[in-house]
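Please, structure for the following, as tokens.
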Amino acid sequence: MAFKLVRAAAAVAGLTLATGAMASECIAPANPGGGWDFTCRQVGKSLQDLGLIDSTMQVTNLAGGGGGVAFAEVVNKRNDDNELIVAASSATSTRLAQGAYPGNTMDQVRWLASVGADYGV
């Protein structure tokens, strides 16, 4: 698991470097202590361990609406924030693509990378 997280962090960091900015915050679309919170903290730790960020990555928890609250925050208030990563699953991304979040579409976000898969097994 740790190796996969490091590879994921390296992939995210590589893509972030390609855009000319380094992520300093990760939005976890759930409550503190859950899976998305863990994902953001581990990606941040991996980026710091690899020397790709200087300080601890800030984790912001925005629970609600099955990820809709986090997407709305990014689209409506932080769409130009190049130092932001949002943890998302294929399920939340699919709901966004299907228009399940009123007022938000998949064209309003920049897709960074897919660094893992959950097949629901």
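The longest helix spans residues 2-18. The longest strand covers residues 25-28.
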